[in-house]
Amino acid sequence: MALIVQKYGGTSVGSVDRIRNVARRVARFHREGHQVVVVVSAMAGETNRLLALAKELSANPDPRELDVVAATGEQVTIGLLAIALTEMGLKARSYTGGQVRVLTDNSYTKARILSIDEAPMRADLEAGTIVIVAGFQGVDADNNITTLGRGGSDTSAVALAAALRAAECQIYTDVDGVYTTDPRIVAEARRLDTVTFEEMLEMASLGSKVLQIRSVEFAGKYKVKLRVLSSFEEPDATSPGTLITYEEDETMEQAIISGIAFTRDEAKISLMGVEDRPGIAYAIVGPVADANIDVDMIVQNIGASGHTDFSFTVNRAEYQRALDVLGREKGRVFKAREIIGDNRICKVSVVGIGMRSHVGIASKMFKALADEGINIQMISTSEIKISVVIDEKYLELAVRVLHQVFELDKEPA
Ligand code: ADP
Ligand code: ASP
Ligand code: MG
Question: pTM, whole model, 2 decimals?
Fold first, then answer.
C-alpha cells in the first residue's frame, strides 16, 4: 500500500465521460489498497475561455481579479470528480487550493508555492477517503486567491507529492509519456521509458509543455518520483509511461540527443548602431528587467568604428511592452540608430546529456538546417542543449529534419 498523487490534465477531464473514466482509474488504485490524492485541471479549453471573458471587459484586467476568475475552472472539476466517485460508492472529498492551504507568494498569475498544510488530507486518507485537490491555485498570506501560471496543475501535483512524501506522482495526460519530441508534430516521435531530470528540466524550459517547468524543478528539489502516463487507456491498463530519473545510469548507453523541444512564444528585438562602450548591455537590458520582462538569448556583434548591434529575445506576450520600454529609454540611457523587432520567430532546441562527451553535434545540427535552406538567426548553447532561433514558418520542418538526422525514431544502440 502506498500514497500516490495522480494529476489529470484538461483533456483528461474534458467531458463528464472522461471524468467518469478518471474516477474508474482512481477507484482501481483505491481498490488495490493505495491512498490516492487526485489533482485535476479545469476542463479542456475552460481556462482559455475564462481568461477571454476577462479580456473582453478590459485590455488590462487587474491580476488579482484575473486569478479569481481563472481559478474557478478547477473548482468545477474537483466537485464533479468527487460526485463521480461518490456515485461509485467511494468516499471522496474535494478541496480548493485555499482549503488545503496551498500557500503561495502574491505574484498573481504566476505565483510560487511556499508551503502546503497536509494534515487535513492525511486525516481523510487514514479514514479511507479519496482526496481531490484543485490544481493551478493557491492563496497568499492574506487569503487572496492566486494561480500558478499556465500548466500549473503539474506543479500543484508535484508539490502535494513532496508535502505528503508520496511514493509516486503520476501525471496523466493525453499522450502516454514523454516523447523524443511533440508527437503531434512528428509522427515518428518515440516514447522514452526514462528521461533524466536534467534533460526533462531543459525540455520543459525550452518549450515541451508536457510538464510545466516548475513542476520539474520541484520534483528535483524534493526528489519526487515523477511519471508521465496516458489517461486515455483503459483504467485497468498498466502502461509504464515515462519515468523521470535522478541518477545517470552508467551501465546504459546514453543517447547523445534525447529530445527536441521548440517554442513559438518568442520575439526578437535588435538595437542597431548602439555605442560600443562599457555599460551598454546593462543600459539596454537593465530597463527591460526592471519592467519584469525576462530576457532570454542575447547576441552582441563585434564592434566596428565605435558602434555595434545588440539583439535579444523575449517572450512573445511581452514583446510590445519591451519595445515600449526601449522606445522610452532610447536617447536617454542609450543611443541607437534604429530598434527593430520581429515576433514571427521560434526557438528549436536539441537536448541530451550525451552531447557533453560528443563533439560535432552543433555542426550536424547546423548542416541539417542549412540543407533545408533554413537561416539561423541566433544560437545559444549549454552543456546539454543547443538552441537556434529561426523564422517561425520553418518550425515544423526544422523539428522533423532534426528528428531525422539525429535518428531519434530509433532506439539508441
Ligand atoms: P494536460 O492538459 O494534460 O496538462 P498538456 O497539453 O499541457 O496536457 O501537455 C500534453 C501535450 O504536450 C501533448 O498533447 C503534446 O502535444 C505536448 N508535448 C510537447 N512536447 C512533448 C513531448 N516531448 N512529449 C510528449 N508530449 C509533448
Ligand atoms: N487549467 C490551467 C491551464 O490551463 C492549469 C493546468 O491545466 O495545468 O493552464
Ligand atoms: Mg499541462
Answer: 0.94
